[in-house]
Fold:
Amino acid sequence: MNDKLKPAIIGGVVLGLLSVIPFVNAANLCCCLWAIVGGLLATFLYVKNSPTPVSAGDGAMVGGLAGLVGAVISVVLGIPINLAMGPIMQNMMIGLLARLDPRQADLIRQQIEASGPSIAGTIINALIMAVLLIIFSIIGGLLGVPIFEKRKGGPPPPPPINVGGGPGGYAT
Structure:
């Protein structure tokens, strides 16, 4: 398990940090892109260091472990960052909508003010995101095996046997 843990931690830290950095985390709106990248990275590192061909199950395992690491980072760092950055992001969205359609901006501003900031809502969103990160990093791990594993299954062929004793013998 130790040979899977190091690539999973590296992939998980990458996906966790990219998922909580404001503005960079917007790429997760595209099918949890950072989770898939984290699963792919973990699988790439595992395939690179594995002495035997890697199976799809190994890729899923490494991707899942990376997703678990990333989910923990996302929850632990994401909740405080979202609570701190939430009002700033809301004002930016309202400003953007005001430029596009002022009537829509007023309607959205009223809805945001009516709901108000919620710690419970932020925690629930973080937990849902954590589950999605795990699922999509497993998918990234599964995708990584056919992309990065170029070796065929089974053990390597044995070396040729020298029949006939000396340098003029026949190899079979």
